[in-house]
Amino acid sequence: MEEKKSNFIHDIIDKDLAEGVETEVHTRFPPEPNGYLHIGSAKAIYINYNAAKTYGGKFNLRYDDTNPVKEDDEYVRAIEEDLHWLGADPNGGIFYGSDYFDKCYEFAVKLIKDGKAFVCDLTPEKMSEYRGVPTSPGKESPYKNRSVEENLDLFERMKNGEFPDGARTLRAKIDMTSPNMNMRDPVIYRIKHAEHHRQGNKWCIYPMYDFAHPIQDALEGITHSLCSIEFANHRPLYNWVVDNIGFEHKPHQYEFARLNMTYTVMSKRYLRKLVETKVVDGWDDPRMPTLSGLRRRGYTPSAIFDFIERSGVAKADSMADLNLLEYCICEELNETAERRVCVTEPLEVEITNYPEGKTEYFELSNHPKKPEMGTRKLPFTKNIYIEKSDFMEHPVPGFTRLKPEGEVRLMGAYIMKCESVIKNDAGEVVKLLCSVDLETGNGKRTEGPKVKGTIHWLSCEHALDREVRIYNNIFNRENVATLLEDDNFEEFLNDESLVVLKDAKIEESLKDAKAGERFQFVRIGYFTPDSKFEGVFNRTVALKTGFKAK
User: Fold this and answer.
1) Has 296 been annotated as catalytic?
2) What is the residue-wise DSSP string for 385-429?
3) Catalytic residue check, 258
4) Over pLDDT 70: what percentage of the chain?
């Protein structure tokens, strides 16, 4: 058993085990395969998986595929891939809600025979009207007192496809006076003539989630059904289904607060809209809060779980700071990422006093604080690239990098002085002519003034061409989730969410870098090769974030 990090869910489990309510822990993660998982899903995975792992129990993946309209095998595959990437492989097994359709139908028939369910002919509009409001009792359906025989006949005919969508529903007989609207004779089956991604056209009636979910939990032996807080008002119905079907094993539902994050939406409806309107290049766009997007951007499972843990596992809703997520990955990559050189906006420099055709190599460390990570050699030649922003023809006060007649240290190499500036017809600086102090290649200077600035560089002859992509918030408002509506969607998009630098140069050692490998581009940020587009590096995070650690 792993060292337990206390939260209210673990307190519940401790109590259940101590009192003998349960003898083991068995949890599940039940995503609907109608979109890609996002970082909010990662919290549910973390809580369920971690609870099972901490107590030496089992963890199931169960696809909630009870709605055939929006579900797709693409999402099924993506969900399993995301869990594997997170390291949360389901040791209890992989299941599909649709595989329980026969059992759900059998239990629905049982409720009808027990006088606890009836077929209702009310339209959705009438049903909503009859349900009333929480402050006053609802109105009984005129079809509630149908005989058991009539209900069985109608329900079988629903299953056989005799009625169109929406013509009839199967409802539980509970309490139309309940202040909990979920208990006012809820619908447990609806007619939907649609092909299912696994069941094909076998079924034209489908169980509602509130009916199917507790059945699935009970059949799989789930002990602690851990879900987000919006299901708290559904818990009485969950218990009603378990009790009235008569399961010997009774799972229990517990709720936790969802993960909300600044500058982000977790609604699959809005995430799908970003994809369908081509604001992003797919569900795995690195600006998306999806796990596949975060993976493509260079985030790690450990950083994501660290963020979730620091954000807290509680019952009350709160807003997590996006800067905290960036801080978590930045803190990790500062320790683990090898250093490399990239010049994002190159400015050519000719070293006037350096021999034509000569190449020498300077040894640079892969990590300044970890000698065990080794070194690599960077070639130096007569023509090099530096960052445009590292030169200023008319420097502002406090500027310590290269300027006319000024000196800088070339990282790991010589001290360089700017002798003259070459401009194009538009007056733009296109090249610098500089000299180097050839006695300073060891990193020291025996004579002359101390040089304050150090800049990175690459040999023009050896540098590789790459595209660098800088990602920023996709939305421009911190609390965007509370403001979005279908007709104002574009108003909150950040025009600078993607900055593409097409002419970047990288050092030769990155030639065979692969997606999933992470590097610090010195003085710039942390980057990873893109998994979708060859020759592209994605920025994971800048060197510094807006989060202030306490």
Assistant:
1) no
2) EEEGGGB-SSPPTT--SB-TT-EEEETTS-EEEEEEEEE-TTS-E
3) yes
4) 97
Residue from 451, 460, 448 nearest 409 by CA: 451
Pick from 476, 469, 471: which is nearest to 494 by CA? 476
Q: What is the pLDDT of residue 20?
A: 94
110, 116, 192, 258: the active-site residue: 258
Q: Which 3 state secondary structure label does DSSP give 430?
A: strand
Summarize pLDDT for 272-320 with one digit per residue, the tens.
Answer: 999 999 999 999 999 999 999 999 999 999 999 999 999 999 888 889 9
CA distance 8 to 47: 11
- Six-digit token pair at 532? 């979708």
Q: For residue 257, which of 231, 295, 223, 238 has the smallest C-alpha distance?
A: 231
Q: What is the pTM of this model?
A: 0.92
Q: Tokens standing for 417?
A: 């002085």
What tokens were used for 330?
A: 């930045």
Residue pair 536/469 in contact (Cβ under 8 Å)? The answer is yes
In which element (H, E) is residue 63 found?
A: strand 58-63
Q: What is the 3-state secondary structure (H, E, C) of 363-381?
A: EEECCCCCHHHCEEEEEEC
Between strands 205-207 and 187-191, the pairing is: antiparallel
- Encode pLDDT of 47-106 as tens digits: 999 999 999 999 999 999 998 887 788 999 999 999 999 999 999 999 999 999 999 999
Pick from 527, 51, 543, 87: nearest CA to 291: 87
* From 53, 171, 235, 268, the catalytic residue: 268
Amino acid at 471: Y
Mean pLDDT to the nearest integer, 488-503: 94
